[in-house]
Amino acid sequence: MLSIQYKKPVDLAGWTFFIFGILALLLGAIGLIKPEITLTLLGFDVAERSARAANDYTIVFMLASSMASFNMGVYYIFAALNNVRIFYGWTVPFRILTFTVFTLAVIFGLAPTRFIGVGIWELLGALATGLALKADKKKGV
After folding, report:
1. Residue 99 burial (CB count, 10 A)
2. Residues 93, 98, 103, 106: what is their CA dihedral angle, to the nearest 10 degrees?
3. CA distances in angstroms from 73 to 18, 43, 67, listed in the order given
4. Predicted TM-score of the model (pTM)
5. Domain locations along the chain
6. The pLDDT of residue 18
């Protein structure tokens, strides 16, 4: 059963998580409604659906990625509203890993340059959460 103990995040780290969660949820929702918008935001060329080959699963993949983003947003929001601080810390190294993988994809020509924005978004989120956790710890939170 869904349980939310708090009405808003209780500390700085919680706010970083809450804001990241809202953004992930909204971007996921956009991709679910119109996957081509997500492709455009990421810097990919967008072909009309009618021009796609029968075995082109780009739109299906974007729907799956968007659903994952939407769900991740919900998890982050609920974690922030329930002050699940241990989860905040678990995400920091993996968000840095995401930045690394996405940056390498751009460097090795597997993704367009604009795709690095996703990696930077993850890195900034990881750093914000990591620094907030450190600041909250100093305050005794």
Report:
1. 21
2. 170
3. 8, 22, 10
4. 0.86
5. 12-138
6. 96
CB-CB neighbours of 47 under 10 Å = 14
**Per-residue pLDDT tens digits for 10-26:** 899 999 999 999 999 99
Q: How far apart are CA 36 and CA 42, in angstroms?
A: 10
DSSP-assigned states of every residue in the chain: ------SS--SHHHHHHHHHHHHHHHHHHHHHH-HHHHHHHTT-----GGGS-TT--HHHHHHHHHHHHHHHHHHHHHHHHTT-HHHHHHHHHHHHHHHHHHHHHHHTTSS-GGGHHHHHHHHHHHHHHHHHHHHHHHTT-
Could you read off the pLDDT of 77-127 as tens digits, one per residue?
Answer: 999 999 999 999 999 999 999 999 999 999 999 998 988 999 999 999 999
